[in-house]
Automatic annotation (TrEMBL):
Higher taxonomy: Bacteria, Bacillati, Actinomycetota, Actinomycetes, Kitasatosporales
Name the record gives this protein: Sugar nucleotide-binding protein
PANTHER family named in the record: NAD(P)-BINDING ROSSMANN-FOLD SUPERFAMILY PROTEIN (PTHR43242:SF1)
Tree of life domain: Bacteria
SUPFAM superfamilies with a match to the protein in the record: NAD(P)-binding Rossmann-fold domains (SSF51735)
Pfam family, one: RmlD_sub_bind
Amino acid sequence: MTDHRLRVLVVGAGYLASQVGERLSALGHTVTLSSRHRPATAHGRHLGWHPVDAGDRRSVHALLAATGPDAVVVAHGPSDITWCEANPEQAMAAHRGGARYLAEALGSRRALLISTDNVFPGSRSSYGEYDRAEPANVYGRAKLAAEDTLLATGDVLVLRVSLVYGWDRDGLRPNFFTTCAQELSRGRTVAVPDDHWNSPVLIDDVAVWTTTLLASAHTGIVHLGGPRRVSRLAWARHIAGCCGADPALVRTAPQRSTVYACRPRNACLHSERAPHLPELAGLDPVDVLEASNRLIAQEKECR
């Protein structure tokens, strides 16, 4: 992928896909988002959009033919891990099937797949690119199958990301940061596990790394995790402090009793490759506590 303006197809239209699309558009590229239904939220509304059912071969091939992209970013769902656990066939059809149909239609196009920390079991504190993938759940198995399928086509890079956060007020399933900040600011309690660890990464960093790596010649797998390993409990209490809320509103619950039950206990990533990629020099991800401070301070200034 060269530096001139390109037509980029983003398979997906949710929070992550739209933020990547916005970044690509700001860099001068023509961007088309794609999903089964036109996005109902404000995310990416000024970008192009085309319908697609990622689990249907004809639909995927028609998408590539209609949009004629120079490069493709794959960031589609379903990403609701609990839903995937309850609906394994549909999850596999969307991710593995979608990857298979994209692989058939890509030709020589450059592609980047945004994947997940759920490809690991969570028995270790953190995972690098050269650690063996052993998915923790259905979502992890489906994403790993998609990784393997697309990597086999050639000019493909997989960017595995840890827990993504940022303001997502209009999302159907707002991320952990948004949910905690909104609930705590309203004086409502939140129940979070103290035995579930993440290396959260700001959405802005994901968008920058995605567009930077898409423009590179690198293939294979790269990890993007934040520089701090933190429990959801400690993070939620930090958010409470930023919001001026009573930290007692954050209640402790074991992971097995929460919506995070089917996630790996240690959902943390680090990168052994990134320090050796010159394109990523100076693009170190921001610390989650620092970013939480800034995001909430900016919100207060806008009121």
